[in-house]
Amino acid sequence: MISVILPAYNKEKEIKEVLNETAKALDEITSSWEIIVVDDGSKDSTFVIAKRFERNDRRIKVLSYGRNMGKGFALKYGFERSRGDLIVFMDADLDLHPRQIKRFIEIMKESKADVVVGSKRHPESKVYYPFKRRILSDIYFLIVKILFNLNVKDTQVGLKLFRRKVLEEVIPRILVKRYAFDVEVLANVIRKRYKVVEAPIELNFRFSSSINWKEIFKIFVDTLAIAYRMYVRRYYD
Predict the structure, then answer these.
(1) Residue 98 and residue 38: Cα distance in Å, rounded?
(2) 3 state SS of 167
(3) Per-residue pLDDT at 208
(4) Among 41, 92, 187, 195, which residue has the fewest nearby CB atoms (within 10 Å)?
């Protein structure tokens, strides 16, 4: 079974199309799938719209916990309530179309990888990305590379595929609730010597999300906290 975890915060304009396109993409792969929408304390009609899909298809589950806790928290919450052998973490917009899931699964099988992550820096990627975002992404990549020496060139793309056993071992120790969640997960996946492979993506950035300087500072602080827990406290050992 494939489980797709969709963290959603104020996505009333996108969630209907996202669910339609994701279900369609999964049906082309297998009939054994589930989509878990985790409403992360939305203040709009995201939850109500998603619930309509749940009533029409038992393979769609809609969860909520009432207040905004962050993307990382939502992904962890959804995974803990999933059943799939393959777990997809995917953003609840169509910047990255869900039809790419099929290719990720093919790459996992071909390479015998434990994790497949989308990468804007893959030579075959087709990316439309604003210049400012590109610069910030490059700076963050250097910081992560220095701190963790990850053999992954892009940690932040919102499409990742995991074998369930990997997340079952790593997720219980994850503490970051927001944007540095991806780094914390991947740093620990690699420390556990699981095989991680990068995949090309098609990214059409729609400006559906925004990052302000306050959020960027929080990402930086969370990333340093991961390094502190890893190298000083030995929390993940």
Answers:
(1) 17
(2) helix
(3) 47
(4) 195
- Which CATH number does 2-231 carry? 3.90.550.10
In angstroms, the Cα distances linking 58 to 23, 33, 62, 126, 170 are 12, 10, 10, 34, 29
Query: Whole-model pTM?
Result: 0.93
Count of C-beta atoms within a 10 Å radius of residue 145: 14
Q: At 161, phi and psi to the nearest 5?
A: -125, 130
Helix axes 15-27, 100-111, angle to 10 degrees: 40
User: What are φ and ψ of residue 187, in 5° steps?
Assistant: -60, -40
Name the nearest CA neighbour of 183 among 136, 134, 231, 144.
Answer: 144
> Where would I find the H helices in the chain?
15-27, 46-56, 71-79, 100-111, 131-148, 164-170, 181-191, 213-231
Helix (H, G, I), strand (E, B) or coil at 78: helix
The one-letter code for the residue type at 144 is V
Q: How far apart are CA 232 and CA 109, in angstroms?
A: 37
Residue in this structure with the two tokens 């997960």, named with its chain if needed: 185
Question: Are the C-beta atoms of residues 159 and 89 closer than 8 Å to each other?
Answer: yes
The token pair that represents 69 in the structure block: 């806790």
Joined together, the tokens standing for residue 181 give: 């969640």
* Cα–Cα dist 220/215, whole Å: 9
pLDDT of 225 strictly over 80: yes
Q: Is the Cα dihedral 206, 209, 214, 220 positive or negative?
A: negative
pLDDT at 210: 53
Query: How many C-beta atoms surround the C-beta of residue 190 within 10 A?
Result: 17
Reported as a single tens digit per residue, the pLDDT across 197-223 is 999 999 987 654 455 778 888 899 999
